[in-house]
TrEMBL record, chain B:
UniProt-recorded name of the protein: ABC transporter
UniProt lineage: Bacteria, Pseudomonadati, Pseudomonadota, Gammaproteobacteria, Oceanospirillales
TM region(s), chain numbering: 20-39, 51-73, 93-114, 200-219
Organism, scientific name: Halovibrio salipaludis
The UniProt record lists the keyword Transport: yes
GO terms for biological process, alphabetical: amino acid transport
Pfam families with a match to the protein in the record: BPD_transp_1
GO cellular component: ATP-binding cassette (ABC) transporter complex
Length: 240, 234
């Protein structure tokens, strides 16, 4: 930390160098947690969404059940089940998994990933179902196989339609990640709770962290707007 | 068979608390939504600005952070207010700021912002010809609102209200974090005491699923009623 900044902070009662570093650590944890769960969730969601559109009920049924359960129950319950439940699995304490899951970060990551994958699956499924028939027919007329058609035509077209809803899901995930603090993770909210209980200053502690979340939210909104402009360039009216 | 180790009645009481919390929050959210939508559609720039500020700020802050701000901050504010009243005016006034109040306030305000957008779209979907016709019949502004705008707006708003309600119901779980004895908190305490997380959390999850399923049916029924006179396109 630069010298002048440390000096400035030392004059402030609550926002001194220690607490600011505590907030910074929280920010890093929040960003890691949200980013990792979104990336893994997206990778899970694409194949699941494709399975979900298959007509055979034995294929699409289990995916439907998964998304129904994870979208129909609160994330907090899912987090509690995974966090408290993993230690109850018999024999897990002797395996290397226990070293990983003993740290609350990983149960939270698992819960968030499964949750966002369920929402994203439904978003992508909606976009897949809305693929114009003509695009598929054209691809078939070119002699493309199912896999090639999926990769070159259907999925790129669906991603463009899904991006608006997906940006909402990203913001939702950022906000939902605040509950990680409930299972003792020091994310942004966890840092705010620590500083609240240390100084008994609820407004300072929580308003500061609310502003950080707000800045992150607007950053995401801005990023997605740029991405949308880039991906939907071909649909812009000519006279603009 | 299901064995709740004697926590059964308490879990049921928790479920009732959850339902009460959800309905109280819904009432506040609907009121805030109507207020916000009227402000957004009003001619006054100040009202529009205030409503836009409200919806933007709410969408930027996580629900849990806002809930903690209201709960812990509300307590401090209430103490200061009661001190001020007592020392300066001799009035003995104190209200215990409990988690239920903080929860209703937070969830109501958050979903009020989402309802604002829902109602705004629904009001805009009422054809202006309808309003002009009401005016032509000599109705005043309130009559036009209650007889023409409101019933027709409801039809467009119901699907959005239904979606918001489903999310709201799940958000109520967060109030357990600030100490409300809803079913989530009781399940958490019971599972800690009995070392049986699945036994208590899975019934609570099923409870949430069934609450959403039941209310979904109710919304479908309301939707049918609201659309009673509408001739379908296809």
């Amino acid at each position: 930390m630069p010298e002048f900044l440390a000096e400035l902070l030392n004059q402030n009662e609550i926002f001194n160098a220690t607490t600011v570093m505590h907030y910074w650590g929280g920010l890093v944890t929040t960003v890691q947690l949200v980013f990792l769960s979104l990336v893994i969730g997206l990778f899970l969601a694409v194949p699941l969404a494709i399975l979900r559109t298959i007509r055979n009920p034995f294929v699409s049924g289990p995916v439907w059940l998964y998304t129904y359960i994870f979208r129909g129950t609160p994330l907090l319950i899912q987090l509690y089940i995974i966090y408290y439940g993993i230690g109850q699995i018999e024999g897990i304490q002797e395996t290397f998994w226990w070293d990983i899951f003993r740290d609350p970060f990983y149960p939270a990551l698992l819960a968030f990933t499964l949750n966002t994958a369920a929402y994203t699956t439904e978003i992508i499924r909606g976009a897949l179902m809305a693929t114009p028939q003509g695009e598929v027919e054209a691809a078939k007329a070119y002699g493309m196989s199912w896999a090639l058609r999926m990769r070159r035509i259907v999925l790129p077209s669906a991603f463009r339609r899904a991006i608006q809803a997906y940006s909402n899901e990203v913001i939702f995930m950022l906000h939902a990640s605040a509950i990680a603090s409930v299972v003792t993770i020091v994310d942004l909210t966890g840092a705010a709770r620590d500083i609240y209980s240390r100084f008994y200053a609820p407004f300072t502690a929580f308003v500061a962290v609310a502003l950080v979340y707000m800045a992150l939210t607007f950053l995401i909104v801005y990023g997605f707007r740029r991405l949308e402009q880039h991906l939907l360039k071909h649909q812009r009216p000519l006279n603009q | 068979m299901l064995d709740f180790h004697g926590y059964g009645p308490e879990l049921l009481r928790g479920a009732i608390v959850t339902t009460e919390l959800a309905f109280a929050s819904l009432a506040l959210a609907l009121a805030m939504g109507l207020l916000g939508a009227s402000a957004k559609l009003s001619g006054s720039r100040a009202a529009r600005g205030a409503a836009t500020f409200y919806t933007t700020v709410i969408r930027g802050i996580p629900d849990l952070v806002m809930m903690m701000l209201f709960y812990y901050g509300g307590q401090v504010l209430m103490n200061q207010l009661s001190d001020y009243l007592y020392y300066n005016h001799g009035i003995d006034f104190f209200v215990q700021f409990d988690p239920f109040m903080a929860g209703v306030l937070t969830i109501g305000l958050i979903f009020g912002a989402y309802m604002t957008e829902t109602f705004r779209g629904a009001f805009l979907a009422v054809p202006t010809g309808q309003i002009e016709a009401g005016r032509a019949y000599g109705m005043n502004r309130f009559q036009v609102f209650f007889r023409i705008m409101f019933p027709q707006m409801l039809r467009h708003a119901l699907p959005g209200i239904g979606n918001n309600w489903q999310v709201l119901l799940k958000t109520t779980a967060l109030v357990s974090v600030i100490g409300l004895s809803d079913m989530v908190r009781i399940a958490e305490q019971a599972s800690k005491a009995e070392h049986a997380p699945f036994k208590f959390f899975i019934p609570v999850a099923v409870m949430y699923l069934s609450l959403t399923a039941i209310t979904e049916l109710a919304i479908k029924w309301l939707n049918r009623r609201a659309n009673a006179g509408v001739v379908g396109g296809i």
